[in-house]
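Supplementary Methods, section 5.1.

A reviewer requested that the exact input to the structure prediction be made available. We therefore reproduce it here, unchanged from the version used in the analyses.
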Amino acid sequence: AYGTINHLHFQAYFLPYSFPCERAPVLPLRRVGNVAVGRLEDYPVNAVVFEAANCLDELAQVAGGLCERLSQANVPHNLMIFDRGARVMVFPQCFAEKQARGEVPEDILETGVNPACFEIAGHIVYKRQQDYARATQDSACRLLAEVSLPEPRFAEVLALLD
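The structure derived from this sequence is encoded token-by-token as follows.
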């Protein structure tokens, strides 16, 4: 969730349209058995993408294994499941950590948006009319970029796949 404490909760969300993260290109990294592992490209939040159409149990084991290792390393993360389980995205994140250190810009904090799973996937719920009225793709990407692990830390996450 928001990554302020270790906890787990589930939410279901159905849309007849894809989330913005689903439309982002995926850079293939490797295969783990029958599971293709990649990372999002051209998206404001770094994510690990797992895909396997015909072996959902194996996909669950591989993606779940990363989530276990992230939890053990105390790395907050969000997980989204798409395409009836054939595609999973894991978003390691650092928003609460940056917020606690005073590193999130004030204008982003003032929106009251606490980027969690759906916001990270691209559906941002603004709490104030003025933020909604001023929202642009650039401002949404700027907000989401505050969530994303920087490349060196994301490389450490990718190393957990081994």
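The chain has a mean pLDDT of 91. These observations are discussed further in the main text.
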